[in-house]
Write a structure and sequence with these properties.
about 300 residues; alpha+beta; Rossmann fold; D-amino Acid Aminotransferase, Chain A, domain 1; Dna Ligase, domain 1; 3 domains; six-stranded antiparallel β-sheet
Length: about 300
């Protein structure tokens, strides 16, 4: 198809905890699309107000994070209306937002992931300490607790079960935090994340200017290749399209362990996929232009 200007509806907001991140990401996406020559309409969307979808457009860029905007409900609405949109379909979204299901998919695909267990408030933990306890479908490291003893575990479970009937417990793996972006089936350069905090939490991701993002890190070439291979395998196994980002721990023996996949990564100035794309000589305007054209081409070809 030609490189004509498109009318792009950029959706943001949503009802979930990552609403503010979504709004910030969408502003960066919108500016990048305008720089690429497109006409952009920015609209908020909520489960009880989907009037934004009545806006005529060529393609939708849903820059939302969390269960509604990233986990299937919004994708289902877009599919029902026959709209071309950036990101995975509703089926893949439902899998990827659920950390337990994602880990099952990873295991089935032969990808190493830390031992895990779903736990209700009454369930006994079958994993050895230390463990990481977190909700099944929160992003941006909200409500993630590293529990090194029974007291920390009891405190974390008491707090988290107030809002989440089921939690994911995962064996804690000591190591370096890594991430691999995937763009339309092509792996991007691996990034090592070096936060000054204990781990890469919400503050480190979106607020702190002291977190370092390292491309030229020291690691065996086979470990880097394994992360890239596993990222692409999980991207394909989940059924992603257009974009994704897979998070890893690289342990002290340089073995990579998949943690989760993000089907609509952040697009702020702190965000990892745009950094990896830029390292790959794809600046934000070119990245966002490529994504909307991929979405439109796929819609026309289906």
């Amino acid at each position: 198809m030609g490189e004509s200007s498109l009318k792009v509806l950029v959706l943001h907001g949503g009802p979930d905890r990552e609403r503010e991140v979504s709004i910030t990401s969408a502003s960066y996406v919108s500016e990048a699309l305008r720089q690429a020559g497109h006409t952009v309409i920015e609209r908020d969307i909520l489960p009880d107000d989907i009037s934004a979808l009545d806006e005529p457009c060529d393609v939708v860029f849903p820059v939302l994070h969390g269960p509604f905007g990233e986990g299937g409900p919004l994708q289902k609405l877009l599919e029902h209306r026959g709209l071309a949109f950036v990101g995975c379909d509703s089926r893949a979204a439902r899998t990827a937002i659920d950390k337990f299901l994602t880990k099952q998919v990873a295991e089935k695909a032969g990808i190493a992931t830390p031992a895990y267990q779903q736990i209700s408030a009454a369930a006994e933990l079958d994993l050895d300490l230390p463990v990481v306890v977190k909700p099944l479908n929160d992003g941006s490291s909200f409500n993630v607790a590293i529990c090194r003893d029974e007291n920390e575990l009891a405190e974390a479970r008491a707090q988290l079960h107030q809002h989440h009937a089921i939690l994911l417990a995962e064996q804690f793996v000591s190591g370096r935090e890594m991430t691999v972006g995937v763009l339309n089936g092509e792996v991007l350069p691996v990034i090592e994340i070096v936060p000054t905090a204990t781990f890469y939490d919400y503050e480190a991701k979106y607020v702190s200017d002291t977190t370092r993002y390292v491309f030229d890190f020291e690691a065996p070439a086979d470990a880097v290749a394994q992360m890239q291979q596993d990222a692409l395998r999980l991207y394909d196994a989940v059924g992603c399209r257009h974009l994704g980002r897979v998070d890893f721990i690289l342990d002290r023996e340089n073995r990579p362990w998949v943690l989760e996949i993000n089907t609509m990564p952040g697009f702020t100035d702190h965000s990892l996929l745009p950094k990896a794309a830029a390292q790959h000589e794809l600046a934000m305007p070119a990245l966002c232009d490529r994504l909307v054209r991929l979405a439109l081409e796929q819609s026309i070809g289906r």
